[in-house]
Amino acid sequence: MAFHIRFANGLDMPYLLDIDLKSFDEEFGPEMWEMLGDIGTIRVAASANEPVGFAIYQHDAESLFINRLAVKKDRRRQGVGSSLINDCMTFAKDNKIPLIETRVPECWCCPGQPQDATMFLKAVGFKAGKLTKREYEHLGEAICCIPFTRWVR
Ligand SMILES: CC(C)(COP(=O)(O)OP(=O)(O)OC[C@H]1O[C@@H](n2cnc3c(N)ncnc32)[C@H](O)[C@@H]1OP(=O)(O)O)[C@@H](O)C(=O)NCCC(=O)NCCS
Fold it and tell me: Mean pLDDT for the chain?
């Protein structure tokens, strides 16, 4: 499948909402998308201009944080997810940002399970870490997630 990566636009929204809804237990509502579009960056992988995956990230001088990354179910294992990560890497490199981070719910860190994300993250160069006590307290006990990081080289 041929695809290219570009910035999201308004026409993409129904596709992005659909991919999100079918990829996560708790989908982002339209307000959340609007907010993330305002404060962050939404990159889209598009095939024949139709979105088949997306990455949402925010950054500062220290790190680029991926809020959300998903690929349409029937387009997975075709290099879309890794291309979106490479796109983040290129942005980080160009802007001298040393680290890429993301967080994954603990229940998605079980290799062999359908929702496992760790095999993908490992394949694209991330390493699992631990939340600091401060981060854990900030997130609250309801959200048990594992931080993953990748240095930008
Ligand atoms: C995780 C996700 C983004 C991967 O997207 P993708 O387009 O399928 O990923 P790629 O095709 O680029 O995969 C790259 C490599 O990652 C590994 N990988 C990806 N998905 C995998 C899986 N389900 N099981 C094992 N390894 C996997 C493989 O090594 C793969 O290379 P290969 O296909 O040549 O073997 C996609 O499965 C998804 O949207 N999942 C639901 C949302 C999610 O988990 N988001 C969190 C991601 S941080």
Answer: 92
Number of domains in the chain: 1
pLDDT of the residue at 123: 98
Residues whose CB is less than 8 angstroms from the CB of residue 106 and which lie 6 or more positions away in sequence, other chains included: 144, 145, 146
Pocket perturbation via mutation, ligand 1, pick of 77, 102, 106 by most ligand atoms within 8 A of CB: 77
CA distance 76 to 12: 19
The residue whose C-alpha atom lies closest to atom 43 belonging to ligand 1 is 70
Query: What is the model's pTM?
Result: 0.94
How many Cβ atoms from other residues are within 10 Å of residue 54's Cβ?
Answer: 25
CATH number at residue 105: 3.40.630.30
Angle between helices 30-39 and 13-23 (to 10 degrees): 110
